Every structure is written in structure tokens, then in C-alpha cells.
Amino acid sequence: MKIALVGEPNTGKTSLFNLLTGSDQFVGNWPGVTVEQKRGYYQKNKEIELIDLPGIYSLSPYTAEEKVAQNYIIDEKPDLLLNIIDGSNLERNLYLTLQFIDLNLPMTIAVNMLDTMKKEGVQLDNHRLSNLLGVPVTNINAVNGKGIDHLMICAQKTAKEEQVPNRLEYDSRLEAAIQEVITLLQKEEVEHPRYYRWYALKLLERDETVKDRLELSNATQKEIDDIIKMLEMLFKDDIVSIIINERYACVEKIVKQCVYQTEKGTIWSERLDRLVTNRFLALPIFALVIWFVYFLSIQTIGTMGTDWLNDVVFGEWIPNGLDHLFQQWSVSPWLQSLVIDGIVAGVGSVLGFLPQLVMLFLCLAFLEDCGYMARIAYILDYFFRKIGLSGKSFIPMLISTGCGVPGIMSCRTIENEKERQMTIALTTFMPCSAKLAIIGLVAGAFFPNNSFVAPLTYFICFGVIILSGLLLKKTKYFQKDRSVFLMELPVYHWPTFKNLWRQTWHNSSAFVKKAGTIIFLCSMILWFTSNFNFMGQMVPEEDSILAIIGKAIAFIFAPLGFGDWKATVAVFVGLSAKENVVNTLGVLYHQTVNTDNGQELWTILRQVYTPLAGFSFLLFNLICAPCFAAIGAMKRELGSMRLAIHVILFQCGLAYVISFIVYQLGSVFLTGEWTLWSWIAIALCLVLIYLIIRKERKEQAVWEISL
């Protein structure tokens, strides 16, 4: 038995799917498109296959998600549609339900969000709604699982009995037109008569996908066009609006008979929205929230755990324990150095930031699950439109705070191609979990008592996105029509511990796995290349392979303040995985100091670099090209190696220019000394300002990317 879970976004559909399937599910892509596919089996009956279709607002195929849902339902013919609806937004959800009813397939309705309805003083008569629609209607709680056993009993019974919904009548003139089209379909002997009513409505809506599917004769299509013209003349409106209005009129009648206002609820969600989406207060509140998140993660709670891991676990327990063990076993000195100075120092320098990451992921999961992040997408839509994007681009950027790869892949939901490509180019500017380790390292080493540095990097990244968007918008390639951004603002609610833990564990475990694989391997490679020369001889670090390569290219970064070969090597090694920036510094500096004296990496960095150089180093690593995994995802999603190379060069060039300007002008501000580099930084500032403010020409773009 196949059961398809259908419904609008943010109705709890996926939460219900997770409860029903547990871990017995797999994720892939739907054939021919890049929309995520989730399938699984009901835990209590493995003969029931569950398919979590994408959240949609309509069965009209305007988006990839709607195409997937429509094609699956028509082609795969599930035994039952399990329609999850948000009880607090019943009228809007029933609009989609009516489209499912027209398919004439067995269906069961699960009403979720009853707690929100109760708070708003709204009561739903399930029995009355069930009688009107002709389908079972049951209440559930997709968070704690309440009511799902009864739901599945109803669903299985409905599917076995092939109980189809009641046919809902529209205006008599529209119904007559529908019957005329159905008669034409019967003459054409179109397959699947159960879909005739839905086919008729789609043909009246001029749905090109259904037209192509049915391959009707020209004569039949001409008759349908004549019917459409007649309807538009009778209703004095376009055909799409006619059908939409009729569906909503039907929904309104149903709601009046099934929904009761018991008392005026305190809609505190709307009151809170007046504050957090206020045109003057929204951005300051957002800045305060982000500051508090980073304050908890980098300065207080997260730092306590990081200090303990760095100082105690990876600073004393593991190195001392291994050293004692190696002495007992008489292990050779080079192998001791490989394990302690290479692997432990490298992996430990990265894993030491795990408590800060866990705290950050926990805070971001809370903000996302409670509904606040949806408001941020709405707020930022105004600013994103100025740079050729929309609020929908914020979703991939939010996902990128965990990892850039899924962030890039989530750009698939953006329909406008140029907007999608620009979002891919900009989304990796957001500080991912790997970059957070670099933020924690620089903030801890150079600004330990300043709680504003870490959140400042978050807003700098936003500033870089805005700046890059303004620059790319002026190129001929990214000139495009604006897209419309529509999104639902979910009702605020307290997230459950289970959901918070699931999201936090998912992101944190990925970080740990990377430390145990990529970082482990890179630590070994770094140790060998920093201890051996090209002849395979063990030499002092300054004569090693890594030192020779690093010294040859270190001059490139001298104007940025970190011309030391170790920092240079760290930047390039960071392309394998951004955590390797910290890992590399941990390995290279761990071998040059006496760790028995308790000197930590933070202390060493303060002795080698100035705070301004450290900040410049941080900016460059935040803005430059992402890791190879993200670059690979970028190439796949852009569909062009040439375009991907242009994006990478743009990111690296912008990182260099911004770090150069910050370091050179910062040096002037701190020392009062002007050099040739200072004047070049001024010139670069003027060039950037010119490129941003210069107006676009109608005939020709200001500057263009050749592809």
C-alpha cells in the first residue's frame, strides 16, 4: 500500500512522516528535477510505504515542487492521499484540499496545530467537516505523536475500501462547462476516467502540463478554448480567477459550517510580529538577537566547554596519557611526534571548538523552529531586492550556517534562474560551522574580552553579500526581471527539546565526522610535509617541504598583514576543509613551542601577529572561496565549470581586496603612517564605490562577465 503525505509547507507534514517512519526512510531526488525525495515504511506495518511529497500551495505546476507532486499523484497513483492541514489556517489549507478532492482519490485528512487553534479561541467540528467532504478527518499532534495511531487506522481503512471524497459543486455555469469538457475527454478516450473532473478543471485553467500530457486533438482543444471564452464572458473575469474564486467560495461555506469562535483568543503571535517586523525596530532587534547568540556561543557557555577541551582534554589528558604510553612501549620519537604533534594537535585544535558549535547550532535551531527566522527572511526581502535577490535567498544562507554544501543545494527551490545562480555565488559568504572555528580562534586569541567581534563577523558577512550583490547586479549576465517573494509566516511556538536536539545533533555530528576523517588525514599529511624535505629526509620545520612552498608564496599575503609562511599554508590547506585552517596552525605551531610550559595556540598567535593582522586573516578566510566540497556543489548547481571558476575568482579577489583595505587603512588609523599600500587601499575604495553607485545603462551593462 502506498500512502502519499500531501499538504502545504509548515503544516507538520514532515514531522508526521518522521514519526511514522522513524529511521526507516531514505532521501534522494525526484527523477528529472532537483527536489528532495523522502520515502519510508510505516514502523508498525512494513507493507505500507509512505511518500513525503514536497509542501505545495497548489497543484498548478508553477514550481518544481508542484510539478513533482502533480506528476507523482497522476503517474504513481497512490492508494491514499494523507492530507495534513494546519487547523489554525483552515481556510487557506482547504483550498489545496479541494484540489485533491477533484482528483477523486481516496483521502484522509489529519488536522494539526490544534493547540494554536485553542489559543485563538477557535473550535473545529471534525464530524461535520468529514460529512461535508466525504473523507475521514482526525486530529493529530505531529510533535508528540498524539493521535497518529488512530490516523493510520482510518487511513488504512479508507484505502482498502477505496472510499473517495464527495464531489463539491461550484457555480452552475462552471459545472456545466466542466461537464462539457469531460464529455470531450470521453470522446477522445483519455485514460484514467477517475481524473476526468480534475483534467477538465486544469484544461480550463490552460494548464500546459496537462495539455501536453493528454495530447488532445486540435479540434477538441479549439472547443475547450471556446468554452473558456464563454465562461470569461459570463463571469466577466479571466478563467484562472474564476476557478480560484469558486474554490474559495466553496471553502468559505465549509468553514462557516465547521468552525466556531468560542472566545476571542489572545493572538500574541500577531502582537509580537508588530514588534519584530517593525520597519524601524526589526533590524536592531535582529542585530541584538545575533549578538546574544554569539555571546552565548563564543564568549560564555560555549567558551567554557572549549577552554576545558583545549586546556584539559587535548592539552593534558590525551597528550600526557599517550606520552606515558609511548614511553612504556619505547615508541620511536618520530612516531610519537606524528601522533602527539600531528594528529592530536591537529584534530584536537578543531574538536576543541565543538562546544561553541553545539551552542551556536542549538540557538539557531531554536530561532528557526520557533518561527523567528521566517520573519528575518521577510525583513531582508526589502534589502535583497536592492541587489537582485529576494527574501527566498535567505533560506539557503541560513542553511549555510551549518554547511555550505546543503546551502548551495537548497538554492534549487528558487525559480528565477539568474536569482538562483546569484544566490549560489553569494551564499557561501555566510560563516559555516567550519568557519566558526576560525572565528573562535581569532576572537579568543586577539579579542578575548570583546563580545562584539564574533557577532560583528556575522554582520560583515551580510555586508559582503550586499556589496557583492550590488557589484554583480551591474553585470550584464545577472540583469533580470524581479521575482515575486511570497512566504508564510508560521505562528510562533515553543520548540520541543526533541526537535532542537535532532537539528543540533545533525549539524554537530557532521562536524565531528569531518574531524575524524578529512582533518585526521590532513593532520598526518601536514606533519609529514612539515618534517621532511623533498629528498625524504627528516629536517627542521623551517627546511621542510611545507616551509619551502609557503615561503615561496607568502609575499602574496604580506600586504594583508599575514605574510608568514605558516599562515599562508593554512589559507591554502583550508580549501580542503575550512577547519583545516585551525588544524594547520595547530600542527605547525605545536611543534615550535614547549608545550610542557602550557603555551596554548592562542598565546602563540598573539606573539606572532598583531590583532589587526589576525582580523585581516579572519576576513580573508571568511570571504574567499569555500572548501572543495562546496566548490563541487557550486559547479554542479551552476551547471557550468566556466561560471563556477568566475564565481571562485570573484570570491577570492573580493576577499583579497577587502582584507587589503582593512589592514592598510587600519594600520594608518593605528600608527598614523602613510605608505604606498595605504594610497592603493584608498584607490581601491574609490573603485568599489564607483562600481556600486554607477547607474546601469539600458543599452549596455556597466561591466560584464563573459561566459
From TrEMBL:
Q: Which GO terms describe its cellular component?
A: plasma membrane
Q: How does it sit in the membrane?
A: Multi-pass membrane protein
Location comes to: Cell inner membrane; Cell membrane
- Gene3D superfamilies per the UniProt record, alphabetical: 1.10.287.1770, P-loop containing nucleotide triphosphate hydrolases (3.40.50.300)
Tell me where it mainly resides.
Answer: membrane
| All copies of domain FeoB-type G, residue ranges | 1-161
GO MF term (any one): GTP binding
Residues that bind GTP: 7-14, 32-36, 52-55, 112-115
Task: Please tell me whether the keyword Mitochondrion is annotated for this protein.
Answer: no
Give the family this protein belongs to, as stated in its UniProt record: Belongs to the TRAFAC class TrmE-Era-EngA-EngB-Septin-like GTPase superfamily. FeoB GTPase (TC 9.A.8) family.
Q: What is this protein called?
A: Ferrous iron transport protein B
